[in-house]
Specification:
Elements lengths: L15 H18 L6 E6 L4 H16 L3 E6 L9 H4 L16 H4 L4 H15 L5 H10 L3 E5 H6 L12 E4 L1 H10 L2 E4 L1
Parallel strand pairs: 1-2, 1-5, 2-3, 3-4
């Protein structure tokens, strides 16, 4: 058995200059294919209760602090988070939440949502936790893009002028889906 390998023809071998040109070409293609290196997060916010307003805002501001490009698409009741008047009056339901300190039968009594909302607002204040408005403002300053679903704006008959400054209106589901497809992390909250 021979260990000899057939000699490649000298005519078939690329020259050093050709190899160097090919390496340069591949490096340029790799650089072009690689984006700016910034990771992207896309969040869909669908709930507009006091307890559900915090997760998308905390996740968005934290991701932005870590250098992520962040988009939060607000639809249906999640739109209330971006509404200046409604966001300051978000409620916390006392029914259906197993972590509430009251049983459902008590939580169903008239006025209990006001009681549990007041309890949560007191906890937020006592803990010196940022308000919804503060988290929104901080996130906007960090470059987070908050989008308001146009279909929901029309459905709920909201006035676009009532959203916080910096909120992008007129955004549809197709744009949200494209944003999610391009994101490294997609979250539905």
């Amino acid at each position: 058995m021979s260990t000899d390998t057939p000699d490649a023809s000298a005519d078939d071998a690329p020259t050093r200059a050709e190899l160097a040109a090919r390496v340069d070409e591949l490096e340029a293609a790799l650089e072009e294919a690689d984006d700016d290196g910034q990771k992207k997060m896309s969040i869909i916010a669908t709930k507009g209760t006091l307890d559900m307003a915090y997760p998308p805002l905390i996740l968005a501001s934290t991701a932005a602090a870590f250098g992520y490009e962040v988009t939060v698409f607000h639809t249906f009741w999640g739109l209330d988070i971006l509404h200046e008047e409604k966001s300051s009056d978000l409620k916390l339901s006392s029914v259906g939440n197993p972590n509430m300190p009251v049983p459902n039968v008590v939580g169903a009594l008239p006025g209990m949502d006001r009681v549990t909302t007041s309890m949560m607002e007191k906890k937020i204040e006592d803990n010196d936790t940022a308000t919804i408005e503060e988290l929104l403002e901080t996130s906007l300053e960090m470059g987070v893009e908050f989008q308001a679903c146009q279909m929901t704006i029309d459905l709920m008959d909201y006035d676009e002028d009532n959203f916080f400054d910096g909120v992008v209106t007129g955004v549809g589901a197709a744009t949200a889906i494209q944003d999610m497809a391009e994101a490294d992390i997609q979250l539905l909250v």
